[in-house]
Amino acid sequence: MSSLEQILMDARLSMSKASSLPELEQAKARFLGKNGIVTAQLKGLSLLDVEARKLAGAAVNRCKAEIELLVESAKERIAEADLQAKLAEESIDVTLPGRNPGMGSLHPVSLALERIEKLFASVGFSVADGPEIETDENNFAMLNMPVDHPARSMQDTFYLKGTSNVLRTHTSPVQIRYMQEHSKKCGPPYRIICPGRVYRCDHDATHSPMFHQIEGLWVDTGISLADLKATLTQLFRMFFERESINIRFRPSYFPFVEPGVEVDMEWESKGGKVKWLEIGGAGVVHPQVLRNGGVDPERYSGFAFGMGLDRLAMLKYGVNDLRLFFENDMRFLRQFT
Ligand code: PHE
Fold first, then answer.
1. In the chain, N or C terminus with fewer CB closer than 10 Å?
2. What is the pTM of this model?
């Protein structure tokens, strides 16, 4: 047997014995390294004459290539074995009970929503909802915003290609859905809140293209702006657990209410400065909107409001950047356990 064949046999044995990457590296160096066995053979070629050198050179190179292949396949074998070992070690039994069942927590926006729902439930409101993909009809037309109405441009709408649908820009279309559905069956009183996601093409520290609103609607005989103010004042006092909270109604315009107001809340910032912060819009439901909902405006009146839920959560929990709510950073979320 030539010495090259012997070398190859040794190499085969060494590579198949290597059971880890460092071991394999060592074995490889023994043959192909600077002072390796094959390298020595290549160096020895210089002693031969030209013709013999050609032949022997080719044979040594073949041997070298063969060993390189052996190394590669050993590498694959070891990697596969490592993977299997790792999988075996990390396998989890999903039927075991959780290690720390107390770990999870609600998102701060959900926490705020839960509080608000409880407060409204305690005075007889129920929770209604509607789809996030809404018809143009419900999002706009039924709320007194026909196709060419300028107020449509107040809301940076996401339109759905090739349909007359939009991503709802506010939770107010739920007013329409709820009234239409219930006016067929029983009629007012209606007392609902409708929390949910809404979408507008807007993005910075205080605006996100998706955010949350909570709509409120109370339709009954003799409902007035005074009821709206009393309800919201009481809500804020209970939500923030502070008797001293002041709210302010600023005249404003929304096509689906008359009169319409913007609702501000007095808030003491960290430095002790008192500021007015806008929380949402509200007003006395427009007679045409009641009619669109199948309610007789001669008999009934109502108030509606739409508040920024994220904004309320920011104030409640002292969060200064809206984007934190949607980044799902565990360090942020863990603070609410
Ligand atoms: N839907 C209005 C908005 O998102 C808020 C609003 C709701 C105003 C109900 C009045 C009555 O801008």
1. N
2. 0.70
